Fold this sequence. Notes:
A hairpin with a 4-residue loop joins strand 1 (118-120) and strand 2 (125-128). The strands form seven sheets. Strands 5-4-3-6-9-8-7 form a seven-stranded mixed β-sheet. A five-stranded antiparallel β-sheet has the order 12-22-23-13-24. The protein has 745 residues and is of the alpha+beta class. Helices cover 29% and strands 15% of the residues.
Amino acid sequence: MSELFDAVDALVASRSPLPPAEERKRLRQAHGLTLDEVAAALKVRRATVSSWESAKKPTEPRGQEREAYARLLKQLAELYPAPTTAPESTAAPVPATFTDTPTPAEQTLSADPASEAAAMTAHENTQTAPAPAAAPQAAPRPARTTRSTSTSRRPGAKKAAPAGTPAGGSDPRFENGPLAVVDVEDGQVLAYCTGGLVLDVPAKSIPALVDWTLREAKLGQPKLSGPGKDADPLLVLTEAALERYGLPTALTEEERLAGRLPEGHKVIKQLARAEWKLTKRGFGPWARIYRPAQGSERACVQLCIPSWHALDTRHWGEAGQLPPAELARVLGVYASRVMTPRGSTAVTGLELMTALHPATRASEPDADGKRHSEHNPGSLGKDPVDCAPCEAPDGHPLLKDLPRFHVRGPDEKLFEEAYDWARPMTDAECTLRHLVGIDVNMAFAAGANGLPVGLGAPTHITNPAFDPKLPGSWLVDLSHVDLSKVKVGKEWVELDGSLLPSPFTPKGERPEGPAWYATPTVAYAVELGYEVRPVEAWVRRDNGRYLDGWYNRLRDAYLATMADLGVDANLAPEDFLAAMDGYKERDPELAIVVSAIKATVKGGLGKLRERPRGEGWRPGEPWRALSRPTWRPDIRAAVISRTRINLHRKIVKHAAFTGQYPVAILSDCVVYTANGPSPLDFLPYRDGKPLPGGFKLGINPGLVKHEGTQTVLWGEEVRERFNTPELNLARYIKDGTVTDVDNGE
């Protein structure tokens, strides 16, 4: 009989009542539980719990999982009853064990829209730029917002966001925020905006959607710089929206390689009939639909299509798989703190430079009272300039007369790159227990801060006197610099030079003769106490701190988002290490924003020397990127040079004070041996204060965080297994997994 009772109990439990998906999510979040924590408790996958909470198509747990899940939710419902205010829309009947349909329990990002910057001519270069916004406050996860049942063809009836959460900014033209994620639910097209706002979308075609966006949606952002222009609205199309508007949910292999739909596609024909134009990159993952500007009036809408791989998973993680409201939150935080995405993070990083320093501005009125377009001081201008021959990458038109298989050496080619250096461990180091990696936060952004860079074309000079304040490329012999005896501050110190990388080459090898270097590299040789005599140089007398505003905006975005994740800028070393432990799990969506911000820094700098991207290019011929004023390999080289030198300076200070030397360096990650697993086991803190000029734990750009710890035995085993005594352990220190992949962290 007991077996029958058990069977009956199991049968009843298999039908345990559950609240709607929205309530499930509200209850979990109200108790501060992550998806991973619930999944671990119920012994299921994280994705399974996420699907149970999916507002669009929730799945239902079965058997013992359902019983346990129902028990969890029932207990949470007793702790966090839903507000008793009547909801605006009618929900499905809820079992008596639970309260009625919930209202949002958490606030979404409170931020004024700010940001966008771009250049788009009558074809694709009319400039667009957003204005600075106050740093957003905390950015909690938004709860799903129910739309109104209004069928008005106004921008849809608004559903109130959580208390204290503005949907847009102070500018009434853009009161609904910078962007919207367009989705289809129950046959109705909805636009999910920032701040929990949802708009009904009446448009039945892509041309109509563009018209509605510009006329009624009130999307966009104010300009970022005085001479700039307001940002264009961004629409993110989900797969359901693509189907609704006659677009494929995925590109074919041919379309993916081309990066666009074929010109004969019906939607492109619809746009042409409605007199809308596409930029030269066509209708691809990041399409821009516009009409030529009439005076100061713009008519342009940007589309982002995640299912066409618009959001690179290397930088945006699983953002493209998020539900519409959550995706609007992620992109909205990024847009408010950086700028509205204009393409990949690399494209956006480059466009942010232009947004902060538009190429032109309005002149003072002439005799007739008219204003004209003139060069904007401090910008790179509207016309591209040639680089110096030594700064040109292989295949550049400046090098077309070189023999076909000629390989340029260091005396012909500027080669400023990040570190990739390692050495065998000494016997003394092998007696220690741990390998501890530290990573410089936003290293390349910090390298750009305060850096003078050229604004115009280079000037060639021979036998110049070196000027550390003059940006340029210098041909000079630095092989005489001996790291065994260098100046640290004003004092000469003796070091073990064999355990240090050379600061002058990415591989850490001592130079063997004259080579081209950017100004920060040559200036560091002088700082170390050695005389330099350049043979020739390409210098830029028109220069300025072009990247300061770019650095400041990305720094503020990074710090504000990390603060939302519980990592503040003024934490004590121990508290900082504790705060960094598992910070991504506190809010995975904001962790995506952090990743995108860091990728914006590296990608934007990389775009300064963009190489050919197919298009039938042949060596010696120009490629498309060369037509941009922002194609500036000299600026990229200067930033990388300064970043590498900043790191080497800290390494030398650390060695002079502690006698400890790095065993591996990869880009902005440095590995030391230590007796303990923490950075505090080898960083010389005294009374909570770090070594002046050395490594300091903290979240600010230029300070360091813990990258990872492995054992010395692990390092020796890995090197022996691959028979590579100088295998770069910094590449694998994070999790100990040995691959050929560098995640760029």
